[in-house]
Structure formats: C-alpha cells, structure tokens
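Please complete every field before forwarding. Incomplete forms are returned to the sender.

SECTION A: IDENTIFIERS
Entry label: holo-404
Bound molecule: zinc ion
Molecule representation: SMILES string

SECTION B: INPUTS
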Amino acid sequence: MQTCDKLLLNATTIDHVGGVHEKQAIAIDGKVIAWCGSEEELPPEFRKIAQSVEDCQHKLITPALIDCHTHLVYAGNRADEFQKKLKGATYADIARKGGGILSTVQHTRSASEEQLLEQSLPRILALKREGVLTVEIKSGYGLDLENELKMLRVAKKLGKITGIDVITTFLGAHTLPPEFSGKSQAYVDYLCNEVLPQVVEEGLADCIDVFCESIGFSLAETEQLFLKAKGSGLAIKCHAEQLSNLGGSSLAANLGALSCDHLEHLDESGVTAMAKNNTVAVLLPGAYYFLCETRKPPINLLRDAGVGMAIATDCNPGSSPTTSLLLMMSMACHFFLLTVPEVLSAVTYQAARALGVSERKGKIAPGMEADLLRWAVQDPAELCYYFGYPIQHDTMLGGEWITV
Ligand SMILES: [Zn+2]
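SECTION C: PREDICTED COMPLEX
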C-alpha cells in the first residue's frame, strides 16, 4: 500500500535538462520520491495519506547539488605560493623551491589521519551549506600506499560525519612522487601491483582517475592503470586535455569512462569518442579562472555532439581553492557561455551521470532519493546570476528537512 510522509504542493521544479515546470507536486515516502508531476494530475489518494502537506508558494525546488570533481582532502595550503606568483614567480621557479603539488604531498603525508580530517571538514561543510549533498573526493596527495589509503579513509569519514554521500576516486597517478623521480613506469607498476589492489581490497574507492598530461602520465601509462582498475570493478574518470592534447579522453571514453574532466584542449575526435560512449564532459571553470587560462573547452562541439556537460568546483589547493559550486555555475555561464538550463542540469543530472549514480540521484522523479533544495528565488536564472552570494534555501536530505 502506498504511504506518503510529505506532500509538497505549488512548487516550481526543474527537470533533468533544466526545463522549468510550475504548479508541481512532489510526494515523498521515506527517503525517496514516490510521485511528482503537475498538481492537476496528482492521484487524489496522496492528499489523503500524506502525513504533512506543504504549500511551497511557487518556490523553486531542485535536486540537491552534486559536486562531481574535488580534491578537497589535503593538508596545508598554497597561499604563500600565490603571493610569489603575484610577484612574478613562474610555476617552474616555485617548483624548484619545493612548492607546487609536491608541497601539498609533503603536508598531506606528514598530517595524521585526524589532522587531515580536521583540515578537510570545513571544506565539505561549506559545500553542504550551499546545498551540495553528494561530493566526489579524489586521493592523489599521498602517492604511496599508506598515504593514499589514509586520504581515502578520511574522505569516507567525512561522508559519515556530515551525512553527505561521498563517492571516492583513487588518483594515485596525480603526479610522480619524489622517490620515483625520473621513474614514471616504475611508479605506475607500483600503483598497479601494490596500491590499487589494496584500495580495492579495502573497498575504499568507487572510481579511478589519472592525470593524463605531458606533465603527468603518458597515454600508455594511463591505459595500463585504467585496464587494471577496470578489471577490479572500478569506474573510470580522466583528467584529460587540460594543458595539451594527448588523446586521454578518446582512450578513457573508449574504455567506457563515466567522465573526462577539464578538456580545454579537446578536439573533434575526442568529442566524437565521448559522444559515442555517453561519457560526460566535466568542466572546471574555477581552475580556468585561477590559472588565468585563455583556452576554453570546445563547448559548441560538445553541445552539437550531444555530450552531457557537468560542472564541478575542482576544489584543490593549487589551481582551484574554492568551495562554492554556485560560483562555478556563474563562471560556467560567464566564461563558457553555458545556458542557465544547461548549468542547472550540469550540477544535478549530468553530475550524477559523471559519478555513475544517475539511477538514484540528480533529478526529481519517482524512485529517486529525496535530496532536494527549496530556493528563495523568483527565477531559476538567479542561481547562475549571483556570484559570491549565498542564496537562501531549505535543504532536504533523505526525505527530511535539515538545518545546515
Ligand atoms: Zn582535478
């Protein structure tokens, strides 16, 4: 027999492509959506059986936001480096003096699990305050067995503490650790033979990711890692075509990748491979902004080919020290000329696809998890129009309104 805990009436909602619908009803049963659609078509029994009925007064209800690409577990920060850059130091100067990603590796390695948790918690809580209830977190600042496992355990604990659904990604191939300097292939073998099996054994990762780049890992090394991870049941994601075009996105897409991320240098053949394999393009406008990039991802090619586009914070200390997905939504419109409906879909439905969870998250539909936001806005475009403004909203997590 159908039961219903909450019936929301008179809501404005968005669908999976960001289309707006007025006078909608949403029936919630336990942790999931039982029914949704036009109020006129609401089966009458829901009004009778609902434990509570709320008039949403035309307010906008969206699925909770999903941040599908972050590196938010790390220790220390790179504010000192930022100041050096402002004074004209180049990336190479900074790296020579022990800065750059390896300084974050050093801080992360020397932090205890508790310290790492304590430093990362404010970042995930900041996302939660904005309405982000699903977050992907990558490893990649440990770069050895002990510290990669530590990062992934911290990521999982953050989910437990905050109630946020955390999807974890093993990014051991983020950069070469100093002890493997000049021995890239040996490091990839170490990851495949020693680290990855343990990550899988302990159930610490849902996905694998590789930084496939001239300053990262080669196409052949990327393929070796992907094949090994795929054989262990992990889903594939790829940092591809950020600084040059190595063909990482074609490789990843042809192996069935969930997403390819960054993509500033993506070409037509990469777009075609992604379209053919339903791989999502994850765009990271925060890194584009912070690195003062001028080359944009090929939005028109992606759009014309029907490749789904997601947007994420890329929260990390080196190239995108932000915890605001709302700001990224504004930037995606401003820098990449995404439309408002595209952006609304990018942080809900497409982000869910990029994480392989679209069968339970990212849209308002029967059977979906009841993670919802009710926004104090007149027009959905306000979510993209404001920047640096914390837009007021109510948060529903697993069918319950919560205080964040
Ligand atoms: Zn990243």
